[in-house]
Design a protein that fits this description.
Layout (H helix, E strand, L loop, with lengths): L10 E3 L2 E3 L2 E3 L16 H10 L5 E8 L16 H15 L4 E7 L20 E2 L12 E2 L2 H20 L4 E5 L5 H6 L15 H19 L4 E5 L13 H15 L5 E5 L23 H7 L24 E5 L7 H8 L2 E4 L1 H5 L3 H7 L25 H4 L1
Parallel strand pairs: 3-12, 4-5, 5-8, 6-7, 8-9, 9-10, 10-11, 11-12
Antiparallel strand pairs: 1-2
Helix pairs in contact: 1-2, 3-5, 5-6, 6-7
């Protein structure tokens, strides 16, 4: 069993100490249809997974009704939604945990609202009229639309704090709206948000972050990015070009951000620098981004070999990594990088995951068939190690 010593060395996040096992944002589809309001099941679910000094990042949560038409996903734009989230945050805080909500806008990924019985009023929009499905070409966002969406991020951040959240995460990954602006296969605009320059492509994400920061403070705002993702039509020939620019801009403009949250390459495994990218010569690794966040020259590091320092007062941004972690690989990864390791599916089936990692207790495997059913099964019925015994 690899050492997990650094996993439980505290790191400061927004002025609070956390350990380095976090819950990754996971869509679970348990909200009330049409209203996008959580039931009491969510308070139980998140409360079960809370721990002293543990960071939980909620499932993706809509910033406005127009931001997405998934009926069973929650929102953060109505009084009823805020009241439901208050029960969640109270349950987490009662166990000494922290909780951030992930702020979500679908863009062209909202490609099939007519198939839903609810939310049919939510139209599909996009950066450009390029659809994921031929029959659902999105309506291109106007400049006024973009301005309105930017405002949604600020208001949703205020709503999140009202709901008791410790902060918010801007979902800039996985082919959703901010990612659609970043990547050239979804952004064919010719205006100031268009594909002609890195500055233009990054403008929407940076303005969304600024909207949240101006509303609640940089130390309460995180950002999620997926440079290597191909989900929902994404995939840059050289992701370093745009994403190094984005990370440098985030660090320079918002030096007190809470964290940057990166999805590792899909085929990546801790300690392996041999993963192939579709563009010959590009080695998928987030180490260059880690270097920028830590104030290091990215050209000075050795991929999968450089040991990274912890955040400092001069470079306080926490680096969160999400990528298929388990009992065996999380220790070596955190030992080298200093990252907070975000667990997804294994945190579903192991509500006491941090304690299990610390005690080297075997993990319960998850049941994929219950990830998205609309009830308690596969949601709040996984036992802790003690309950199982």
């Amino acid at each position: 069993m690899a050492s997990t010593s650094r996993v439980f060395e505290p790191v400061s996040l927004g002025g609070k100490k956390i350990h380095r096992v976090a819950l990754a944002p996971l869509t679970r589809l348990r909200a009330i249809p049409d209203k996008q309001v959580h039931t009491d099941l969510a308070a139980t679910y998140y409360g079960q997974r809370a721990s002293e000094g543990g960071l939980l990042i909620t499932e993706a949560t809509f910033i406005a009704r127009e931001a997405g038409g998934y009926p069973y996903a929650p929102g953060m734009y109505s009084a009823e939604q805020i009241a439901a989230w208050k029960k969640v945050t109270s349950a987490v805080h009662a166990k000494g945990g922290l909780i951030y909500t992930q702020l979500w806008a679908l863009g062209r990924a909202n490609c099939d609202p007519p198939l839903h019985d609810h939310m049919k009023d939510v139209k599909t929009v996009g950066v450009s009229p390029i659809g994921l499905k031929d029959e659902y070409v999105p309506e291109e966002l106007s400049l006024d639309d973009i301005k309105r969406y930017i405002g949604h991020y600020g208001q949703a951040s205020l709503n999140a704090v009202e709901a008791g959240m410790d902060g918010v995460e801007i979902h800039g990954a996985n082919g959703y709206l901010p990612d659609q602006f970043l990547q050239t296969n979804s952004n064919k605009r010719t205006d100031i948000y268009g594909c002609a320059s890195l500055e233009n492509r990054a403008r929407f994400l940076l303005e969304a972050v600024a909207s949240a920061v101006n509303a609640i403070g940089a130390e309460r705002v995180g950002v999620r990015l997926s440079p290597w993702g191909t989900f929902q039509g994404m995939g840059e020939a050289n992701p370093f070009e745009i994403f190094e620019y984005v990370v440098k801009q985030l660090v320079e403009r918002f030096p007190k951000l809470a964290y940057l949250h990166f999805v590792e390459p899909r085929e990546w495994a801790p300690g392996s620098a041999s993963v192939k990218h579709h563009n010959e010569g590009v080695v998928p690794s987030n180490d260059r981004f880690r270097a920028i966040v830590r104030g290091m020259d990215p050209d000075s590091i050795e991929v999968d070999k450089t040991v990274f320092p912890d955040p400092t007062p001069e470079h306080p941004i926490v680096f969160i990594s999400a990528s298929g972690f388990d009992l065996e690989n999380v220790g070596p990864h955190v030992q080298r990088t200093g990252d907070v390791a975000a667990f997804g599916r294994l945190f579903i089936s192991n509500p006491d995951l941090p304690a299990r990692i610390k005690s080297h207790t075997p993990l319960t495997h998850y049941n994929r068939d219950t990830f998205y059913v609309h009830g308690p099964e596969g949601y709040i019925d996984y036992p802790t190690a003690g309950e199982k015994a």
